[in-house]
Amino acid sequence: MRADAQRNRARILDAAETVFAELGPGGSTEEVARRAGVAIGTVFRHFPTKDDLLAAIMKRLLAQLIAEAGELGGPDGLFSFLRGLVAQAAAKRSVVDLLARSGVDVRLPDAVGHLQDAVGALLIQAQDAGTVSPDVALPEVMALLVSLCQGALHGGWDAGLQTRTLAVVFAGLSPR
Question: What backbone torsions phi and psi does residue 35 show, to the nearest 5 degrees?
Fold first, then answer.
């Protein structure tokens, strides 16, 4: 893909995240094009349908999570990652809700596998540092991750509820 096409694609995705976060399902591809500073044809060239645009947003969000997990580490990396993930889930609520309502099925087995690998590395580092119990396994952490995200997405968690919920989870992960 040419450099200008890559820039247009990124601007479209940035604009789409903002439009759908602000307007929810009422957000239009025309508004996305306007905010991205491109013609509607450019949006459709990159994303033939609104569902394609939503799926691309979700793929990009997952890639960002993988990158963030890879940048963290040490005794508190897992905790920092979970805090950020819950905050993002609460903030991106309308985009994910819109995606779910539209029936778009984003199948990302490779990306999910990479996320699991990144979370696994954070878990090992936290266990080696003694901040997470050695009895905690990756499947439990991934189940917590999914549950926390679902709660934040669908429960409308404010910052206080996020903090209190994560404190309970972190206490459960910590060595006794």
Answer: -70, -30
